[in-house]
Design a protein that fits this description.
heterotrimer, A mainly alpha (310), B alpha/beta (416), C mainly alpha (304), A: 310 residues, mainly alpha, two-stranded antiparallel ribbon, 13 helices, flat, C: 304 residues, MetI-like fold, 2 domains, 12 helices, 66% helix
């Protein structure tokens, strides 16, 4: 065990000839994690793959293999491709908006001003609150008749029907509001990651830039942003996975809308399970979703290389 | 099937071994599981009807366990939203509850999971059910479920709004309804004439109100017929109501419960409601001046949508027949059953219960229309798929042609 | 000694010369005008972020009827504080037990994650070995699976283990599914500690565990804190698995208990909102206690 050299950077350069023994030496350290992952996640994941090739009755009884029929059903569903495109739009828009807003927020929170601690705590709340509840409250506020947000819009004259507008009743507005909520709940984690990254920007570098006569904008884009790159890269990766897999927001905001004009792959999986009780098709779609997210992540990792360190 | 099961089992065992390894010293947390060695345990899975439900069942169970000290009943209450995915998960895991309160039973029956309920009730209990309800639980001569509670629908009318709009009497047919609703809508100020909930919550019920009211049908135990010419008049009439502005905004995506809240607060002229609606009005806005009348139909002939929820007994290991029988016999005895039904505000399904509640003023309008009730074809194993298709597609009537919507629903049913 | 601790995923930054003066806030000579602009910006941020929770809070002190009023008012007209007392003894669900369940499950799952993720993160950041990338990839893959579909497999598995309807089951599940981000976050922090630190300690004859706990840990504390927060919040709000694994009302966490207030035709919104507010508080308090370490701790470690 003591033979392996310490040092994270060193072995990478030397394309080492470590062997089997090094892996064995690593086991006491990574073993518990492997046991936990394999012990809990492997079986359900296998069940998901197996279920995707079975015929499972609405009450949950396995009726035997159907080969790839469930996949055929997934891809022959007339709304599949629009939903696929909407899923990509959902991920790209939510993650992009989250990053841009978080960069601004982190700047504000990084500046000194009285009461900053309170503001920082407030930014944390959407992270602490469950996503379902945050969404519920926005949904409730947006409802015609009951909703306070709708009342406000009526009072300031932006909506001219006295009971308010059905924001959550129409696919386009409901989807747009879902994006707003999704960005809102993604901000705390992203902002804090950037904020932590900002702390590591050495003061001297900023001083030097200032002395070179660089304006605030040039300093930010030329000095600060490059330093944030890797922090941001991991935050974006985690956001991509989370946003892609996000179900509760769209489920609540678009739940009462008929048809499939506001669905993403995740809500479609949910509809297969919850409404149609097709666990088999839902599993097949989940496998498809799994492949899609792996591809997205792979492309992202290729292009952005967030894991240089890893 | 066998083979994958074995592989599954092998993986599960491997997983168990690793976990067992990981869990040394990690005792089971708060579970109070573990069957009593001496007696029988019954697992009861039920949905939540209202904030009373959990307490009502606890009372039933307490009374039952006192009479049957060797039987323990484990209660699990879930919201309607989660109920069906929870039971599907349990069945997949081979852990079906012993007694289940739910909607359509046909899927479970088709999979051979249920007891013939005549085997788990005493003849006295069984003969106490009203025949019309029992008939709805039968498939090819076998009774798979016990009717539990029933509801019928009727039109709730805001008398004040109708009067204000100059409508003399509550409507009885579609033309009058359209006329009255248009007039009430014209009052303005956020008031809607007819509350039409076609959103996913209970689209199938509003669909039934209109399609059946126009002489349509959803099919029978052997066939589901949504794309049927007889259903078209009802669907067209819905569109007519929407186009005339006789309904609230966005009927296609409005759910039933929030809409009823608006009716209760006097902002909607007319809406179809159920027996529990009476209690809701009593609780939230007792001042509301309203009446309950039969649902208007195309030609004014009486019709209502009847729904009976069910209690089912799962076979599982087949060794709890006696305990289940004891439970059903206890629950359906009038002293236990009637207070339960009364508290939740539904209609009784037993003869003895109906006798006791015959004098109830609040239930009278519903008991009156009950003889004309039509029921969902819930004995058809495909009804579940039809129900889901209505929920997710019927609201499109607001924007799509009626025929297209019916065709799409039928297609989804046939595919399921 | 010049030591840099990187933020999650940051490459270690070359430590600047120790003489470099940190730009700290208090030292900044901020003109009053600028300060006011900042405070205004801060105020706007504050308002936006608490708005939904203010609506939630106002809802929690209304009556059931007031919440569903078609003439909503911006502020409650009557304040029904008793909602916060009554909700603990409602017939729908034993809320006190639900709160205890949530706490127990979240605390133990977080501890388990720490225990398991820390060595793995440390070792993979420090030592190269065949299969290291595979391991890190495997870890992140668990995050990409859709929980709603995994529940049926989880249910069968924990029935087989005879752990169904126990806290232990949910502790394992929460720990397993939150392991990945914890490993990743901590990994990137460990990677930020220069290897010389380890080497020096090992020359002094310290065992590897001692190096981890005595030398590295204090340096990566902010990373640990980030991982704790991330894991704890995720466990605190977990729903999909708890719904099927825990069937006894008293064992269920708050996230599942909330659904009990949703009836077929009526929902007790005032309690739903009240419970949600109560559920936020412990997490915010946790944040309050460690906020300084989360961000400030980084600063402390970065340049000495």
């Amino acid at each position: 065990m003591s033979r392996s050299r310490p040092g994270g950077a060193e072995p990478r350069t030397g394309r080492p000839r470590q062997g089997w023994r090094d892996t064995v030496a690593a086991l006491p350290w990574i073993g518990p994690a492997l046991i936990l992952i394999f012990g809990v996640v492997l079986f359900p994941a296998v069940v998901m793959f197996v279920n995707s090739t079975r015929d499972i009755s609405i009450s949950g009884v396995d009726k035997g293999s159907v080969g790839l029929d469930n996949y055929v059903e997934v891809f022959s569903f007339p709304y599949f491709w629009p939903i696929f495109v909407r899923t990509i739009v959902w991920v790209v828009v939510v993650v992009a908006a989250t990053v841009v807003i978080s960069l601004g927020l982190a700047q504000i929170l990084n500046k000194a001003f009285p009461g900053r601690r309170i503001v920082r705590l407030a930014v944390i709340i959407p992270w602490a609150a469950s996503v379902v509840m945050t969404t519920m409250v926005v949904y409730y506020g947006l409802e015609p008749y009951f909703g306070i947000i709708n009342t406000f819009l009526v009072d300031v004259g932006l909506v001219d029907t006295p009971e308010g507008y059905g924001w959550t009743r129409n696919p386009d507005t409901a989807f747009a509001w879902s994006i707003v909520v999704a960005v809102f709940v993604s901000l705390p984690f992203t902002t804090y990651t950037i904020l932590a990254g900002l702390q590591t920007v050495p003061g001297e570098v900023l001083e030097a830039a200032k002395m070179d006569g660089a304006g605030p904008a040039r300093t930010y884009f030329g000095v600060v942003l490059p330093q944030l790159r890797s922090a941001l890269a991991v935050a974006v990766l985690i956001n991509i996975i989370n946003v892609f897999n996000s179900l509760p927001i769209l489920k609540v905001m678009t739940g009462s809308i008929p048809g499939y004009d506001a669905d993403t792959i995740m809500t479609l999986i949910f509809k297969y399970i919850q409404n149609q009780h097709k666990v088999d098709v839902a599993s097949a779609l989940s496998v498809v979703a799994f492949v899609i997210v792996i591809v997205i992540v792979a492309v992202y990792v290729r292009v952005v290389k967030p894991m240089k360190e890893i | 099937m066998r083979k994958t099961h074995r592989i599954g089992a092998a993986v599960a065992i491997a997983a168990s071994a690793t976990l067992a390894l990981a869990s040394c010293g990690f005792g089971g947390g708060g579970g109070n599981g573990g069957d009593d060695a001496s007696g029988t345990t019954l697992d009861l899975l039920v949905p939540s009807y209202s904030d009373n439900t959990q307490g009502l069942w606890e009372d039933v169970i307490a009374g039952f366990e006192e009479e049957n000290p060797d039987i323990t009943v484990n209660l699990e209450v879930q919201s309607w939203d989660n109920l069906e995915s929870v039971i599907a998960t349990k069945i997949q895991g081979g852990e079906a509850p012993d007694i289940y309160n739910g909607g359509p039973f046909a899927g479970f029956a088709a999979d051979g999971l249920l007891y013939d309920v005549e085997e788990v009730t005493s003849p006295e209990t069984f003969s106490d059910f009203q025949e019309s309800f029992i008939a709805n639980e039968q498939l090819e001569g076998t009774t798979y479920a016990l009717p539990f509670i029933a509801s019928a629908r009727a039109l709730f009318v805001n008398n004040a709004l109708l009067e204000q709009a100059g409508v003399a009497a509550p409507p009885t047919d579609w033309d009058e309804l359209l006329d009255a609703a248009t007039k009430v809508s014209a009052l303005g100020g956020g008031v809607a004439g007819y509350g039409m909930p076609l959103g996913s919550e209970e689209a199938q019920a509003e669909a039934a109100v209109w399609l059946w009211g126009g002489g349509g049908t959803f099919g029978d135990e052997s066939e589901i017929t949504i794309d049927d010419p007889s259903n078209l008049p009802g669907a067209e009439q819905i569109k007519k109501m929407i186009d005339a502005g006789a309904t609230q905004a966005d009927p296609g995506s409005t759910d039933r419960s929030p809409l009823m809240d608006i009716f209760i607060q006097g902002k909607i002229g007319m809406q179809v409601g159920l027996p529990p609606t009476v209690g809701q009005i009593e609780e939230n806005n007792p001042e509301l001046d309203y009446s309950i009348v039969p649902i208007p139909t195309q030609d004014g002939s009486p019709m209502t949508v009847g729904v009976a929820d069910q209690l089912m007994a799962f076979q599982n290991d087949g060794d709890k027949q006696e305990a289940i029988t004891a439970f059903f016999d206890y629950f359906y005895s009038a002293d236990v059953y009637v207070p339960w039904v009364q508290a939740e505000g539904f209609l009784p399904v037993t003869k003895s219960g109906a006798e006791q509640l015959a004098g109830e003023e609040a239930l009278k309008p519903f008991l009156d229309v009950l003889p004309d009730a039509k029921f969902y074809p819930s004995t058809n194993a495909k009804w579940s798929a039809a129900d889901a298709a209505f929920k997710s597609l019927f609201g499109q009537l607001q924007t799509k042609p009626a025929q297209d919507v019916l065709t799409e629903i039928q297609a989804q049913v046939d595919a399921g | 000694m010049a030591i840099t601790v990187a933020a999650p995923g940051l490459e270690p930054i070359e430590a600047p010369t120790p003489s470099g003066r940190r730009r700290t806030y208090t030292e900044d000579q901020v003109p009053l005008g600028k300060l006011i602009v900042r405070m205004l910006a801060g105020l706007i941020v504050l308002l936006v972020f608490i708005l939904p929770y203010t609506i939630m809070f106002f809802g929690s002190v209304k009556t059931k009827a007031q919440i569903r009023s078609v003439d909503p008012t911006y502020f409650p007209t009557e304040w029904h504080w008793e909602n916060y007392l009554n909700m603990w003894s409602t017939p729908e669900t034993p809320l006190v037990q639900n709160l205890i369940s949530t706490i127990v499950i979240s605390v133990f799952a977080t501890l388990l994650v720490l225990l398991v993720a820390m060595p793995a993160a440390y070792y993979t950041a420090r030592f190269a070995f065949p299969g290291r990338m595979v391991f890190l990839f495997l870890v992140i893959v668990t995050q990409m699976l859709q929980p709603a579909v995994l529940t049926s497999g989880l249910f069968r598995q924990f029935v087989a283990l005879d752990l169904i309807d126990t806290w232990a089951a949910m502790i394992f599940i929460n720990a397993a599914f939150n392991l990945s981000f914890a490993v990743w976050i901590m990994h990137s922090f460990f990677a930020g500690v220069p290897k010389e630190v380890d080497e020096a300690a090992q020359i002094d004859g310290a065992g590897r565990l001692a190096v981890l706990f005595r030398i590295n840990l204090p340096l990566v504390w902010p990373g640990i804190v980030t991982a704790i927060v991330f894991t704890f919040v995720a466990c605190w709000n977990e729903f999909a698995a708890s719904l099927v694994i825990l069937s006894t009302a008293g064992n269920q966490p708050l996230s599942v208990a909330l659904t009990k207030f949703v009836g077929q035709y009526e929902t007790s919104w005032h309690y739903v909102f009240g419970v949600s507010i109560v559920a936020i508080i412990p997490v915010v308090v946790l944040f309050m206690l460690i906020e300084k370490r989360l961000v400030g701790g980084l600063t402390a470690g970065s340049v000495k």
